[in-house]
Amino acid sequence: MSSSPCETCPANAHLAQMGLKIDKYDRIVALAGNPNTGKSTLFNSLTGLNQHTGNWPGKTVTRAEGGYEFNGIRYKLVDLPGTYSLLSASQDEEVARNFILFGQPDCVVVVTDATALERNLNLVLQVMEITHRVVVAVNLMDEARRKGLEVDVRSLSRDLGVPAIPITARTGEGVQTLLTTIEEVISEKIQTKPLRASGTVEFRQAVEELSGMITGLIPNIPNARWLAIRLLDGDARVEQALLNGELADLVANQRQSDLRLSSKTALAGNQ
Amino acid sequence: MVDPILILVSVMLLGFAVLVLLPRQGLLARLKAAKEAAQREKIEDILKFMLDRQQEGRFASTESLAGVLGIRSKELLKLRVVMEAQGLVRTEGNALALTPAGEQLALQIVRAHRLWERYLATEARLPLEKVHREAHRLEHRISVVQVNELDAALGYPQHDPHGDPIPNQSGEFPSEQMGKPLTAWPQGIPGRVVHLEDEPTLAYEQILAEGLKLGQNLRVLEVTPERYVLTDGENEYRLAPAVAANIFLVPLPEPSDMAKDVIPLVALKDGQQAEIVNIDEACQGFTRRRFLDLGLTPGAVISPELTNFFGDPRAYRVRGVLIALRQDQAGMVQVRPVQQQ
Amino acid sequence: MATLSDQNLTPQDVLARAQALRPRLGAAFRDEIVKSLYGEAERIARRAVHRLEDKKWDLDQRIDRIVTSPVWGLPIMLLLLAGVFWITIVGSNIPSQMLANAFFWLEGVLAGLFTNWGVPWWITGFLWHGVYRGLAWVVSVMLPPMAIFFPLFTILEDLGYLPRVAFNLDFLFKRAGAHGKQALTMAMGFGCNAAGVVATRVIDSPRERLIAILTNNFVPCNGRFPTLIMLATVFVAAAFPPVVASFVAAGSVLAVVLIGVFFTLLVSWALSRTFLKGEASAFTLELPPYRRPNVGRILYTSFIDRTIFVLLRAMQTAAPAGAVIWMLGNIYVGGASLANHIANFLDPFGLLLGLDGVILLAYIIAIPANEIVVPTMLMVYMGTGMMTDLPGLDMLRTLLVGQHDWTLLTAINLMLFSLLHNPCATTILTIYKETRSAKWAAASVIITLGLAFLVTFTTASFARLLGWV
């Protein structure tokens, strides 16, 4: 698996901004990322909306929604508040975390800052624990070049196990490739193998045991490992979701929508 | 003809009667609920006190209860009947003893109290000297389910802000070293603060005012009948013996070279690079989580880059990003300067 | 591990097991998780990112050395702010005059047409001298300063300068028991206090956030800005030679803003020692790299999003307010208009504060939107004399000083009152929504209004005591 270079882009690749027309859509894509990495800029350029952008951390305080159409498929795009992590349980993190876990996006795009990749990867790793349908958009490539940094996205993709696409949201550089990749990850044309951070021996044992139990309780649950870590760490929201059957419902829903989706892609392929 | 005043008066009387007698919102009902709540609070306080005594291996006599909790003996007698009827206590000779049910309830209250203290101090950021009283008020108004939720939301802490252990859901305390009071600590040997007794409040406030905190390494320099002189290597603290007895120490883990060359982050000069060793125990809750999330983890390289007009906050470069921290918070991060090539 | 095959597993079992496993992991479990995540991130980043050229200091760092320096940081900040005000004042002077001329010429023409058509006088008066005049005032007074101020401010914002301001000023906020990010929310308040209140969500601690919400109104929003600019130009700067007048005007607006900052800190300090007692929360402020602002986009968004939006809102309230004022001015009871009656009733109270009854009446009518305070005031003043001339800035001076006994004290106290008085209806509603508490929404009104009365009363009494007025 690797980022698809643009010669493989379909010739009819076409982006249409749909602004607030999101009553009908085929896919949900979430934009996550650290504060100030240009999520809102990307969101605006894709949807044609005017989500306020400013250069200070935390301007996006609630999630914004908009739509775009790409290659005949309608996407609902959700701009999540910028967060450093999903562990601290501050208000904005709660919004982002709950949407990624309970909002069932078909794909999560983690927008990262090419000039501060190390700090940004912390969030990427956390998102990859929750879902395997992740695309990493390495934004601000122009600034990285200005600072004399070179980002090897191939190495990044290989290490992370999910596609990493270099983009400059402000100029639109790389955005077409990003959209194609999102589609390919959703249709599972690109198989992702998200990396999981290991930790100490005690940690691994405890997590394995608990995630085994969770899988026993809810078969086919995709993120048992992450849930196990959250339960060990103490997370009232996850405990509650486990007790009231919300998690089990999610898995059932996900399977249904997966079936719908695959029949849809099959239809699209027949055209 | 009916006198309109008569109608008015009777309507008002009726309204008043409804106001008083309404089954749930009525004044009478409220008065009764308030009285019951007050009684429950007193019973819970008694149970807590008895648990405390029991853990010291003693039984609580009725006199000591009346004395410490400030309840009149006539009322105490009444409460005792209620508690016995509820199966919370039994009489053991002259003294009272907790039944298993009573002990469980007492543990539950202790657990609620310490979790509240933890929440108030580390999440709501209430001043430490106010935490105890507020937690005491809140501990009686929370259900078992809510306590469990609070515990989970706080990430299952093991200690309250004074260093007291928090029992878990089943009422078990985390295993730990019990500290020795400073008054029984050998002179000249360093120890780490594991517990700061929060009662009496006056002594606790003085401890806080001196700036002493959990996790600090202290050494006794001088003992006279009037005062104890302590040092943490930087500052000197002078305390009355009665206050010093409220500080509990354990021996340092090991006098390893780990601690060598370690300085607080604030002591770094602009442009000097250092490696983060750890974040102080005293820094808990949201602040600690935020620090970690920003990449201030042990091993990360950090370097102060900007200082403003007031000298506080300073901006540090860590993991390629510039982050401003206030001086008092940066003081809770321990670093070891690295040699620059 | 044996539980794996157990078919009768319940969620409670899982939670119980988690509880049993937890003590083994130790108290520093969270530390361990984050440490291992960052360990991994470090490893991956080291392989993927290569430094092509070794620059010791890049441009960003050099700029930061200057704009946050102990010596230059604060002066640069004040200069930038004063510069923005100066450009706004100088730039909006002529367009404002032109717009006013055009609008009032049109009013004359159209009202004349109506009269020729035989439309009853009260319809003509109501529509053109009431509703239309209110709108015309708002547009000509507000549009030019906003169209200049917003883009300039957005450039500073997109550049990444605001976090540096927060960095430079945090110490003061710390002393006041507040959060440094409050400076960011105050900067947003320049645009609109309601937006500033929403922006306080960047502050995590509920206590510090509440302080930021309750004090946001001490930043003059765009609705009050034109009032300040007008007063600074007409009264304060007019006393100086024309060469320096614009600088004096900018300086006095800056002074008012600084007084606002002072009261923000003072009220924050008082709150954090009384009703909102507590310890400082984590102050972690990222100073992002500077980014080149996209000027074309800024001009577009600040014009469409902000200027037009705010203007529309102002017009929505200005039109009905204009109608109300016209009616108050033209319904006569016992030989005097309603407006006169009310103004006369409020007059003693107004004079106590160094203001007058008309000003207070204007503030009451303008509660829905602060933008229309000055137009309302002028319409009441003019309505009594039925002035038909074009009210240029010089005429304004003649009207206020000549006919209505305004003094420098009136102007200064009006500026102070405008800075400190209660938030507009939209902001109060936003505060209610954000705090979910009618109590705090009410507190925001009481604190500001109380302070406004107190301060203006004090200055007025002092001025009178010292015989200045």
Run of helices and strands of chain A:
EEHEEHEHEHEHEHHHHH
Q: Give the structural class of chain A.
A: alpha/beta
The strand count of chain B comes to: 14
The Rg value of chain A, from CA coordinates, equals 18 Å
Any key phrases for this structure?
heterotrimer; B: 341 residues; Arc Repressor Mutant, subunit A; SH3 type barrels; 6-stranded antiparallel β-sheet; 41% helix; 19% strand; C: 469 residues; mainly alpha; 4 strands; 75% helix; elongated; disordered N terminus
Structure report:
The complex is a heterotrimer of chains A (271), B (341) and C (469). Chain A has 271 residues and is an alpha/beta fold. Chain A folds into two domains: 6-186, 3-Layer(aba) Sandwich (Rossmann fold); 201-270. Helices cover 45% and strands 17% of the residues of chain A. Chain A has helices spanning 39-47, 91-102, 117-130, 141-146, 153-160, 175-186, 201-217, 224-233, 236-243, 246-270, and strands at 15-19, 27-33, 64-70, 73-79, 107-113, 134-139, 149-151, 164-166. In chain A, strands 1-3-4-2-5-6-8 form a seven-stranded mixed β-sheet, sandwiched between helices. In chain A, helix 3 (117-130) links the parallel strand 5 (107-113) and strand 6 (134-139). Chain A is globular and about 50 Å long. The two termini of chain A are 27 Å apart. The longest helix of chain B is centred in the N-terminal third of the chain and has 29 residues, at 27-55. Chain B folds into four domains: 29-98, Winged helix-like DNA-binding domain superfamily/Winged helix DNA-binding domain (Arc Repressor Mutant, subunit A, Orthogonal Bundle), CATH 1.10.10.10; 106-176, Orthogonal Bundle (Arc Repressor Mutant, subunit A), CATH 1.10.10.10; 180-251, Ferrous iron transport protein A (FeoA) (SH3 type barrels), CATH 2.30.30.90; 259-337, Roll (SH3 type barrels). Chain C has one domain (77-465). The longest helix of chain C has 45 residues, at 73-117. Chain C is built from 19 helices and four strands. At the A-C interface, helix 3, strand 7, helix 5, helix 7 and helix 8 of A face helix 1, helix 2, strand 1, helix 5 and helix 12 of C. Strand 13 of chain B pairs antiparallel with strand 2 (284-286) of chain C.
Write the layout of secondary structure elements.
The complex is a heterotrimer of chains A (271), B (341) and C (469).
Chain A: E1 15-19, E2 27-33, H1 39-47, E3 64-70, E4 73-79, H2 91-102, E5 107-113, H3 117-130, E6 134-139, H4 141-146, E7 149-151, H5 153-160, E8 164-166, H6 175-186, H7 201-217, H8 224-233, H9 236-243, H10 246-270
Parallel strand pairs in A: 2-4, 2-5, 5-6, 6-8
Antiparallel strand pairs in A: 1-3, 3-4
Helix pairs in contact in A: 7-8
Chain B: H1 4-21, H2 27-55, H3 62-69, H4 73-85, E1 89-92, E2 95-98, H5 100-122, H6 128-138, H7 144-153, E3 180-181, E4 191-196, H8 201-210, E5 217-223, E6 228-231, E7 236-239, H9 241-244, E8 247-251, E9 263-264, E10 274-279, H10 285-293, E11 301-307, E12 314-318, E13 321-325, H11 327-330, E14 333-337
Antiparallel strand pairs in B: 1-2, 3-8, 4-5, 4-8, 5-6, 6-7, 9-14, 10-11, 10-14, 11-12, 12-13
Helix pairs in contact in B: 2-5, 5-6, 5-7
Chain C: H1 11-25, H2 29-48, E1 49-51, H3 59-67, H4 73-117, H5 121-159, H6 162-175, H7 182-191, H8 193-199, H9 206-215, H10 225-236, H11 242-273, E2 284-286, H12 295-330, E3 332-333, E4 336-337, H13 338-352, H14 357-365, H15 373-385, H16 393-404, H17 408-420, H18 425-435, H19 438-465
